[in-house]
Design a protein that fits this description.
Layout lengths: L11 H9 L4 H8 L3 H29 L4 H21 L3 H22 L16 H10 L7 H11 L1
Length: 159
């Protein structure tokens, strides 16, 4: 297989940095006097692989961490923010959008863990299992003003 002409280019480090910074392949072609197809192939094959390896390394570091889970979630949030910024710079809005969804979920998890996100206490009663509740509910269906006695009767039957 033929060696990548960009990888053997004297300015490969600058080309890689420009690609990682989201500079267009067309601009790379002009700035460094390289073929557009070569720059595109290099971006797709080598730059994407480097990004993937960097992400994999960051994830492995988080997984191996002895830090408390809250700190690990913070690390994930920081990683997601960097990925979103890179995706926006490169104009890949679908990746940025997906990253934003993942960041939102991670922040919600962090907020729950730290107590910043209060969840209302809920109690779920399965009144469908109680025949007497069903009969009482049918009898009170027309009377929607005061349902408290029906609820209390259902609670008593469950206990």
């Amino acid at each position: 297989m033929k060696e990548c002409s960009i990888c053997s280019h004297k300015d490969v480090a600058e080309i890689d940095k420009a690609l990682l910074d989201g500079i267009s392949v067309r601009e790379i072609e002009k700035r460094f006097a390289v073929g557009r197809a070569s720059a595109s192939r290099h971006k797709r094959s080598h730059i994407a692989a480097e990004r993937f390896e960097a992400i994999e390394t960051a994830i492995e570091n988080i997984q191996r961490s002895d830090e408390p889970v809250v700190e690990q979630v913070k690390d994930v949030c920081a990683l997601l923010r960097r990925l979103i910024a890179r995706a926006q710079q490169s104009g890949n809005l679908s990746i940025a959008n997906q990253g934003l969804k993942n960041l939102t979920a991670a922040l919600e998890t962090l907020a729950r863990m730290t107590g910043e996100l209060e969840q209302p206490a809920t109690t779920i009663f399965n009144f469908a299992m109680c025949d007497s509740f069903r009969r009482k509910a049918e009898a009170h269906r027309a009377q929607t003003i005061d349902v408290q006695p029906v609820v209390e009767a259902g609670k008593e039957e469950i206990q």
